[in-house]
Amino acid sequence: MKRIVILISGRGSNMAAILDSNLPIEIAAVISNRGDSAGLEIARSRKLPAFSIEHKDYALREDFDSALAMKIDEFSPDFVILAGFMRILGIDFVKRYSGRLVNIHPSLLPSFPGTKTHRKALEEGVKIHGCTVHFVTEKLDHGAIIIQAAVPVLEDDDEESLAARVLEQEHRIYPQAIRWLVEGRINREGNRVLLGGKSGGALVSPEIEPR
Ligand code: GRF
User: How distant is the alpha carbon of residue 206 from its chain centre?
Assistant: First the structure.
């Protein structure tokens, strides 16, 4: 079974969705950069090894990254899953886990990288918003896209209602992406992700079941 380390910073609902998805994986550890993350409690309540490495304890980003990498490597994971992990990781860290490091981002990348994606989507007046699971590269929120889900932006949406609609899809696509990963179905041609050799990648909307 593939070994997974999950990195979180807060609530941990994506982590919980992964844990609840009956995936053929071993969760080797959950690590947060904040000791007060609610997600750590969820992990502990499920008897998973859960740790915090406080980013505030490190003056330099590289030192935090090194401490985090040392902890991760104790568990020899096949994949490192960023699930609401809110720290930017440096080049060395990203290179160390290249091809094994994935993230979920609450927008249809490459639109709206960074934070406050739902506010930006409302400000720009887009009609379709969504979420993306992607490989992590040195460029923030920019790696090869594994799966996306789209949701409509409704006229009476505010940030909260839009975030909730997107989050529902995050909980659906992240477990799917991890299933593909651990089943070895993901091939890459440059920035394109091909599923089991089939081109076309993986764009889903709530009405379309992924292959
Ligand atoms: C999610 O919307 C994720 O996409 C973003 O931060 C949020 C984390 O939520 N990066 P949770 O901790 O998984 O509940």
Answer: 19
pLDDT at 204 over 90: no
**Ligand 1 atom 12: residue of nearest CA:** 12
Q: Give pTM, 2 decimals.
A: 0.93
- Structure confidence by residue, pLDDT tens digits, 68-79: 999 999 999 999
Distance from C-alpha of 107 to C-alpha of 113, rounded to nearest angstrom: 7
Residue 24 belongs to domain spanning: 2-183
| Distance (Å) from CA 82 to ligand 1 centroid | 9
Label the pairing between strands 79-82 and 50-52: unpaired
Indicate which CATH number applies to the domain containing 14.
3.40.50.170
Q: Tell me what pLDDT residue 200 has.
A: 41
The domain tally of the chain equals 1
Taking residue 38's Cβ as centre, other Cβ atoms within 10 Å add up to 15
What is the C-alpha to C-alpha distance for residues 198 and 209, in angstroms, rounded to an integer?
16
Burial class of 32 by CB neighbour count within 10 A (0 to 12, 13 to 18, 19+): buried
Q: What is the pLDDT of residues 23-41, one digit of tens each?
A: 999 999 999 999 999 999 9
What is the Rg, in whole angstroms, of the alpha carbon atoms belonging to the chain? Answer: 17
Q: CA 80, CA 56: separation in Å to the nearest integer? A: 22
Is residue 12 lining ligand 1, measured as CB closer than 6 Å?
yes
- Calculate the CA dihedral of residues 161, 176, 23, 102 and round it to 10 degrees: -90
Give the Cα separation of 89 and 206 in Å (integer). Answer: 31
